Amino acid sequence: MSAVDSLQISAKTAKPKGRSRGRSFRKGQSGNPAGRPLGSRNRASLAIAALLDGEAEALARKAVELALGGNALALKLCLDRLSAPRRDPAVSLALPAIGSAADLAEAMAALARAAAAGELTPAEAFDLARVADSFLKIIAARDDAAARRERAARSAREAANPRREIGFREWLDDHFAEP
């Protein structure tokens, strides 16, 4: 068979160009609309768990032996497992109670003073300022809701007791009339 014949055969058996490659389902619709079941595990993870089942103690012992023998990677693995992940220490700072935006201003001033005095690191002060910003958003939302309720109550009162239109002379008589 010549090279030309093989090219003609491969051209005849090739897939038509109209089909899109890599998209076997319509856009926005998967082959499994229900999705992957909750709690199902990857086959590779299950296979590794089956291989390591019952060998954890021996593997840990071997890692310790390698670490003691000078293997830097095994040493790092052992130290990472022995020490807890590093967490930021708790910050002890007296702040005023926050109930309004004015209280929040006092709290921010206390944060600034503590950072300036070295009682807080700049990063700790920044994190606490972000917490204070969250308080400000909550206070603003609370105040907006209270203002909306007050406007609704005022509208209801005004609808129940409509004002009568009076002229300037009548107003003067009402307010400055002698008893």
Q: What pattern of helices and strands is seen along the backbone? A: HHHHHHH
Largest sheet: none
Q: How many individual β-strands?
A: 0
In which range does the helix fraction lie? 55-70%
Integer-rounded radius of gyration? 37 Å
The number of helices is 7
Shape annotation: elongated
Distance between the termini: 127 Å
Oligomer: single chain
Percentage beta strand:
under 5%
Spans of at least 5 consecutive residues whose pLDDT stays below 50 are: none
Concise structural overview:
By secondary structure, the protein is mainly α. Helix content is 61%, strand content 0%. The longest helix has 39 residues.
Relevant terms:
single chain; 179 residues; mainly alpha; 7 helices; 0% strand; elongated
3D structure, described in words:
This protein is an all-alpha fold and 179 residues long. Among the domains are: 44-83, no CATH class; 101-160. Helix content is 61%, strand content 0%. It contains seven helices and no strands. It has helices at 3-13, 43-52, 56-68, 72-82, 101-117, 122-160, 168-176. The chain is elongated, with a radius of gyration of 37 Å. It starts with a helix and ends with a helix. The mean pLDDT is 80.
List the helices and strands and how they pair.
Elements: H1 3-13, H2 43-52, H3 56-68, H4 72-82, H5 101-117, H6 122-160, H7 168-176
